């Protein structure tokens, strides 16, 4: 037979009291916490109800076609085809329900367009970007670009209109006398749909060799004569020249 001590030791009794009190406090606390704070499912359900109760603010991408068919058609064929009307005009559900009562906002400031079109290296490659300080400042964008069909208003004459940085780099380089078209064949259509029709780029070492090979027989290029000469067989091995020389600013470090 196991013999219990007649009297519990004081230390154990105190521990027991502490334990009982703690359990009671926790139990009461648990009962007092409201259910939504305890159940994630109740929280989800409530959130859905809360969002459902909000009035709809956006009419959707096709709601404007019915009454603004001309603008809708124009936008659909242009560069802004992937933007919905409400991206620019803001939520317009109330307007579609009663056009005379509420009118959507008209984002006519330069700062609006610049949110998407200001230079920013994190934008996708080739996304049309401008420098807002340099690009026709002080005039509203819509003065030259129809926001519903924003093609550039005139076909630019110079390559520098769109390739300003390359043109400015070349202008202070050893290649300043070379035209862009000496090295790139650029169809006129490139200036109208630049991403659709691309100019050529030099493909091989021999291209630069036309002017720079020490035994060149090039006569059509008047600059071939004054170009510094290299031995094509020895110089730069098998690599294409622009792996070492930036063609728009070919500097040689001494
Ligand atoms: C039921 C027909 C109807 C629908 C649908 C509709 N509109 Fe309109 N909208 C009008 C009418 C009518 C006017 C006022 C006539 C006018 O000024 O050309 C107007 C004017 C506007 C204006 C000019 C506001 C101003 O201050 O001059 C904008 C911008 C506009 N609508 C955008 C939208 C957008 C965006 C949608 C789609 C979400 C849309 N509308 C859908 C009928 C409609
Ligand atoms: C890229 C932004 C943008 C998008 C997308 C856009 N708009 Fe506009 N919209 C504008 C701006 C900016 C103006 C003011 C033009 C001005 O000041 O000449 C305007 C003006 C208007 C006007 C009033 C003046 C006018 O030209 O009749 C209507 C109506 C309108 N937009 C409807 C629409 C509809 C409908 C769509 C979708 C099919 C749409 N917009 C898409 C920016 C946009
Ligand atoms: C929500 C972003 C957004 C806003 C706001 C916006 N755009 Fe655009 N824009 C685009 C996209 C996307 C394209 C198409 C890019 C492509 O073709 O790859 C484009 C194309 C263009 C082009 C054609 C450039 C070219 O390739 O020649 C012009 C010009 C232009 N937008 C002007 C404007 C103007 C003016 C406004 C203000 C009324 C404006 N954009 C507002 C997204 C935007
Ligand atoms: C005075 C007329 C004018 C005004 C104002 C203007 N642009 Fe342009 N935009 C042009 C012309 C012309 C081009 C063709 C390239 C060039 O000559 O710069 C162009 C080209 C563009 C391009 C295409 C660039 C590319 O690399 O494909 C975008 C995007 C653009 N503009 C957006 C805007 C925005 C945004 C505004 C307002 C902040 C604006 N433009 C104001 C005339 C204008
Ligand atoms: C209306 C604006 C515009 C004008 C004017 C323009 N370009 Fe371009 N160019 C572009 C755009 C936009 C791209 C595409 C950039 C991208 O996809 O990253 C491009 C790309 C190029 C490329 C690269 C092609 C490739 O395959 O990578 C070359 C080379 C080029 N342009 C040369 C020229 C030359 C030379 C001229 C003048 C005769 C010229 N461009 C005029 C806008 C223009
Ligand atoms: C000496 C010949 C030469 C001249 C002159 C020249 N380019 Fe290029 N360019 C090249 C070569 C080579 C490449 C390819 C570089 C590569 O693939 O890395 C190139 C690439 C490009 C590209 C593609 C993007 C880039 O930076 O690699 C553009 C855009 C371009 N050139 C525009 C121009 C414009 C605009 C001018 C006139 C201002 C010009 N080029 C003058 C040789 C030249
Ligand atoms: C139409 C003739 C011509 C073509 C094609 C040409 N160049 Fe040149 N290049 C020149 C001339 C002229 C100079 C010297 C200009 C001067 O007097 O500083 C030069 C200078 C240079 C220099 C020397 C820079 C220095 O610091 O002395 C290098 C490097 C160079 N080019 C590389 C290239 C490459 C790479 C290509 C091909 C993408 C190329 N060139 C195509 C005419 C040409
Ligand atoms: C592996 C890198 C590399 C390649 C590839 C290369 N170069 Fe060079 N290039 C250099 C270096 C480094 C110098 C400066 C030292 C020297 O003169 O050798 C130079 C110098 C030059 C010079 C100036 C010579 C002088 O006397 O002033 C010209 C012109 C030149 N390169 C043209 C070319 C051409 C054209 C090609 C393609 C056929 C090419 N390079 C390929 C690295 C390269």
Protein model, in words:
It is a single chain. With 254 residues, the chain is mainly alpha-helical. Among the domains are: 70-143, no CATH class; 174-243, no CATH class. Helix content is 35%, strand content 0%. It has helices spanning 10-32, 35-38, 40-53, 69-77, 85-89, 93-97, 110-117, 164-171, 180-183, 205-212. The protein is flat and about 120 Å long. The model has no long low-confidence stretch (mean pLDDT 90). One heme C binds at residues 64, 68, 71-72, 75, 80, 83, 85, 87-89, 106-108, 142, 147-148.
List keywords for this structure.
254 residues; mainly alpha; 10 helices; 35% helix; flat; binds heme C
Q: Quick check: average pLDDT?
A: 90
Major sheet size, sense and barrel closure:
none
- The parts where pLDDT drops under 50 for at least 5 residues are none
What's the end-to-end separation, in Å? 102 Å
Judged by helices, strands and strand pairing, the structural class is mainly alpha
Order of helices and strands: HHHHHHHHHH
State the helix count: 10
Bound molecules: heme C
Shape: flat
Radius of gyration: 36 Å
Helical content stands at: 25-40%
- The counted number of beta strands is 0
Approximately what portion of the residues adopt beta-strand conformation? under 5%
């Amino acid at each position: 037979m196991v013999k219990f001590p007649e009297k519990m030791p004081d230390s154990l009794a105190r521990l027991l009291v502490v334990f009982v009190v703690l359990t009671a406090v926790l139990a009461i606390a648990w009962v007092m916490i409201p259910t939504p704070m305890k159940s994630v499912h109740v929280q989800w359900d409530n959130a859905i109800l809360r969002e459902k109760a909000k009035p709809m603010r956006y009419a959707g991408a096709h709601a404007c076609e019915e009454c603004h068919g001309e603008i809708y058609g124009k936008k659909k064929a242009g560069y802004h085809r992937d933007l919905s009307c409400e991206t620019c005009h803001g939520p317009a559900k109330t307007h579609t329900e009663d056009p005379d009562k509420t009118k959507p906002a008209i984002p006519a400031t330069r700062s609006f367009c610049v949110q998407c079109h200001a230079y920013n290296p994190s934008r996708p490659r080739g996304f049309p970007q401008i420098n807002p300080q340099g690009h026709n400042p002080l005039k509203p964008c819509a003065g030259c670009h129809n926001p519903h069909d924003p093609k550039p208003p005139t076909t630019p004459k110079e390559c520098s209109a769109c390739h300003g940085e390359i043109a400015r780099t070349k202008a202070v380089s050893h290649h300043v006398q070379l035209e862009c078209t000496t090295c790139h064949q650029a169809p006129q259509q490139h200036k109208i749909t630049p991403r659709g029709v691309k100019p050529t780029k030099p493909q091989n070492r021999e291209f630069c060799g036309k002017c720079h090979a020490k035994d060149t027989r090039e006569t059509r290029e008047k600059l071939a004569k004054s170009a510094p000469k290299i031995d094509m067989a020895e110089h730069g091995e098998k690599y294409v020249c622009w792996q070492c020389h930036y063609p728009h600013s070919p500097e040689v470090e001494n």
